[in-house]
Amino acid sequence: MLAFITRNVLQRILLLVIVSIMAHSVIHLAPGEPSQVDPANPRMKPEDIARIRAAFHLDDPLYLQYVYWVKDLYSGELKSFKDNQPVLPKIWGRFLNSLPLFICATLLVWTFAFPTGIHSAIRRGSVYDRSSTFVAYALISLPGFFLSYIMVLWVVEVFGVPVIGMKTFGIEGAQPVFRLMDRIWHLVIPSLMSAILGVAVLSRYVRSQMLEVIGQDYVRTARAKGLEEDTVIYRHALRNGLLPFVTMFGLLLPGLIGGSVIFEQIFAWPGLGRLGYEAILARDFPVILTINFIAAVLTLAGTLLSDILYAVVDPRIRLQ
Amino acid sequence: MNNQTIDTAQEMHEEPLLPHETPWEEFVRIFQKDRIAVAGCVILACLFVAAMAGKVLTEWVIVFDTEIVRLPDKFSPPLSFPSDEVVALDIQPTFGVYVFGTDELGRDVFARMLQGAFVSLSIGFIAVGISVFIGILLGGLSGFYGKMKLGFMTVDTLIMRFTDVMLCFPTFFLILTVVALLPPSIYNIMIVIGLTSWMGTARFVRAEFLSLREQDFVIAAQALGIPERRIIFRHMVPNAIAPVLVSATIGVAGAILTESALSFLGFGVQPPYATWGNILSDGKGFIFDAPWLFFIPGFAIFVVVLAFNLVGEGLREALNPKLRSR
Question: How many domains does one find in chain B?
Answer without folding.
Answer: 1
